[in-house]
Backbone:
């Protein structure tokens, strides 16, 4: 299932990993683990925030995917299913046809 992982990194924690040189390593490891179709980095309410859009095969993937964000970055993390335009088109078509 296509998911979006959003991680908001508190400024103090972000500054610490930036200063000690591990922020890029943490993001590279997350990218390698998730193999996202897209990744975006932005500010949300003044905090560094990343968005990874990826395919989650099983819910058992949650601990290895999320714990680094919690433990290494003290991040506030959310994970939710999302659709792209093709998924929406298919879902609405199925709904309208009664399947």
Residues:
């Amino acid at each position: 299932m296509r998911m979006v992982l959003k991680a908001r990194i508190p400024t103090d924690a972000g500054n610490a990993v930036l200063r000690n040189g591990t922020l890029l390593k943490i993001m590279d490891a997350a990218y390698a683990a998730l193999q996202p179709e897209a990744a975006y980095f932005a500010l949300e309410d003044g905090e560094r925030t990343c968005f990874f859009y990826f395919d989650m095969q099983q819910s058992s993937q949650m601990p290895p995917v999320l714990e680094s964000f919690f433990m290494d970055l003290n991040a506030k993390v959310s994970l939710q299913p999302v659709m792209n335009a093709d998924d929406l088109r298919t879902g609405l078509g199925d709904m309208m046809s009664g399947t």
